Amino acid sequence: MPQLQLPIFPAGITEINSQIAVEKKASTVYYIYGHLPVFHHREDDVDGFRMFTSQMIVNGTVKPKEIVQAFGVPMITVKRYVKVFRERGAQGFYVAKPRHSSASVLKGEVLERAQQLLEEGRSVPEVARELEILANTLHKAIRAGRLSQQKKTNPRAAR
Question: N or C: which end of the chain has fewer CB within 10 A?
C-alpha cells in the first residue's frame, strides 16, 4: 500500500506564484491573494488542501508544477485530485469513498451446503476443504452473520 505523502507547509509566507501565497500560523494554513486571505484549513486537513489546490489549478490561478514545488507533493497526486475536482467538484473530497468488495463465493447452493455442514458439527477447515473454498471466506461469512456455526461444547465443563 502506498504511503501518504503529506504536503509540507512552510512557516511564514511563501509565494506559490506572483498572485497567490501561503502562510502557516499556529496549525492553520492560509492562502493569500494579494493581501486578502481567500481560504484556510487546518494543517492536518489533507482533504481541504487537496480540494483548494485542485480548485486553483482548474480555475487557472496556479499551475500544477507550482503546487508540487511549493508543497513537495508528487505530480501524480496533484493530477489525481484535479481529476476528482473536475469530475465531482468540491464534494468529491468530502464524501465517503465507495468500498469495493470482491464478489462472494458463498452464494446459493454453496452457502446452503456450507451451513448444512456446519450444522452437522464439522469444523470450518473441514467445510472449506470439502467445498474447495478458503477457510477465511467461511470465517468472514460467520462474522458477517451469513452463516452460523455450532457452538463447541467443552466435554470437561460437563463433568
Answer: N
